[in-house]
């Protein structure tokens, strides 16, 4: 790779970073932008809105980013369609909630546990991974979509079990008052709250639903997950996953143990979900079976397909985009439409009148339809996803070129 | 499966048969201890299962031909019930009594609903699935989910979040009442009630499934469908118009779903916009249960799942039904991955 002459003059440090080349690489550039946005987000939003609401929301979006990164390992890398991913999310969240609240005191066990969050983060991860392996072990011999259906069934069963074993899990009443993580030291500064100007060291810090603290935590978790998954992607295991995705028979013929490899994809994917589950339980302080229904699995799947399967950058972009559409764009729409109608002199439409629920009400009703339309149109316009993986893009292009060539040949024949 | 198949019976198959046998024994014990309850649940399960079978056929046909889990299919079913309600609303039918007008309306509305739903489903295929036929495999799955949201959103917009009442056109009853000479007025514990509706659902479903089987097995288009499902490229080489065949599959699937929606409406007299989500999942489970891509399998699977759901509701408790259904699904796929009637086809 030739380094531009101007860059060579600036000394060895500059050469080693090779910023110019990196910026030209689309994925790295997007990573950079996302990273910088993530760093300045708390300060910028506090400065702009004087509240921590947007930070809390970004923290919640981060959960979905984690989920999407994990599901991407299963679906994007190994090509195993998983329609019950929320089950592992639920398992992670309940593992933390049960062992870090007073829930088990009212269960037949009559003893409450208060395990530290930092330990449970990894316990949740391991439990989810083990559940993934247990589910995967008998079913991964199945091919293609049968696996999807088994995971779908699993995803339906798990929340229902959390409902039904209400002696242990509180069932429909959910588990509340979940312990907050704590750290011996924490730093606050202008990014933490409006009006603070000095940087301070806080001893014996408890997260106590502090959106900024949770935001910092999720950003660190996401960065760790990205580094982990990137390394996995280029490891021997990652290449084995992709070989299986492209052609299982050929992969097996090349000496890849397909069952173990697929099992690892399943378990590793599930472990990210368990991770995200523990974080979710802590940040909301309440865990109910309703939060882990089939819709969640579908949403995460939509995020990764729409973002660009198999490409970590794409998956993160997709997760943020869908989260934005679902939690900001659509809920804000009714008010927007109402004020628009007022400003163009159609204010009479805003009033509720008989069957007409008012313009805002009608827009609220239409929101779900719009979400569906957005999905369909996005997929039709970019079937490969917003930011598809480079390799995949090349393959698709190659296919298209081949098809064109055959078409030309046919035309000449 | 790579299970050894010596003497035609593998280990996995054995496990499957043992599970089946256990279920049958447990049910037989219930049947002997309380025959009236058993019969009543059986009737309800059969009626429910017949509707699941109608929906499952659409899933299995579409999956068989383009390997797509058509998530929008359950919502096409629900939309069928909505359209039926609207169409019936145009007539001055008398509810809770069976008049000639009711019969005429039924005979008019039934085909109308089926054709409308067929048209809608073909449109959906044309817009959302056909352009993506050569795209990455998951792209049409996402548009199917999107279309499901669009249909649900449309029904939500149409009638709001509340449940919608479907006019009660059918005579309520009694097709058969009482049990082995017991008088219901004396002891209602021994009473089995089989209404006209139960019979109607079963007969209507049986007619539709028979027509479908005849169509698939005897007609030229049916043959084209089977060929396309087996090998799309080869059938194209044989001069089959692939696009038209796939559109026809969606059309027929939606005919059945529309009929199923109307039958559901007439049977339960109430629908809500998100009914298709859960019903669709269960119907899809039935299709897998019977062996996905297999048409008699889907019909059988629907009936079995309907029965399982009813027995689970009756004997285990309705909060466990979902666990039972999906547990059985996982069990079947583990022990017998091709479903009840699925054939062992080599991987492409």
Protein traits:
heterodimer; A: 413 residues; mainly alpha; two-stranded antiparallel sheet; two-stranded antiparallel ribbon; 17 helices; 4% strand; B: 348 residues; ABC transporter involved in vitamin B12 uptake, BtuC; globular
- Taking pLDDT < 50 over at least 5 consecutive residues as the criterion, the unreliable ranges of chain A are none
Q: How confident overall, as mean pLDDT of chain A?
A: 85
The total tally of domains of chain B equals 1
Structural class by sheet pairing and helices of chain B? mainly alpha
What's the pLDDT, averaged over the residues of chain B? 86
Proportion of residues in extended strands of chain B:
under 5%
Name the structural class of chain A: mainly alpha
Question: Termini distance of chain A?
Answer: 43 Å
Treating each run of at least 4 consecutive H or I residues as one helix, how many helices of chain B? 12
Number of helices in the DSSP assignment of chain A: 17
Q: What share of the residues of chain B lie within helices?
A: over 70%
What shape does the CA trace of chain A take?
A: globular
Largest interface: A-B, 49 and 47 residues
Radius of gyration of chain B: 21 Å
Describe it.
The complex is a heterodimer of chains A (about 425) and B (about 350). Chain A has one domain. In chain A, helix 14 (about 295-305) crosses helix 15 (about 310-345). Helices cover about 70% and strands about 5% of the residues of chain A. Chain A is mainly alpha-helical and about 425 residues long. Chain A has helices spanning about 5-10, 10-15, 20-25, 25-50, 55-75, 85-100, 115-140, 145-165, 165-170, 210-235, 235-245, 250-255, 260-285, 295-305, 310-345, 360-380, 390-410; strands at about 100, 115, 180-190, 200-205. A two-stranded antiparallel ribbon of chain A has the order 1-2. Chain A contains 17 helices and 4 strands. In chain B, helix 4 (about 100-130) crosses helix 9 and helix 11 packs across helix 12. A two-stranded antiparallel sheet of chain B has the order 1-4. In chain B, strands 2-3 form a two-stranded antiparallel sheet. Chain B has one domain: ABC transporter involved in vitamin B12 uptake, BtuC (Orthogonal Bundle), CATH 1.10.3470. Chain B is mainly alpha-helical and about 350 residues long. Chain B is globular and about 65 Å long. The relative contact order of chain B is 0.19. In chain B, about 70% of the residues lie in helices and about 0% in strands.
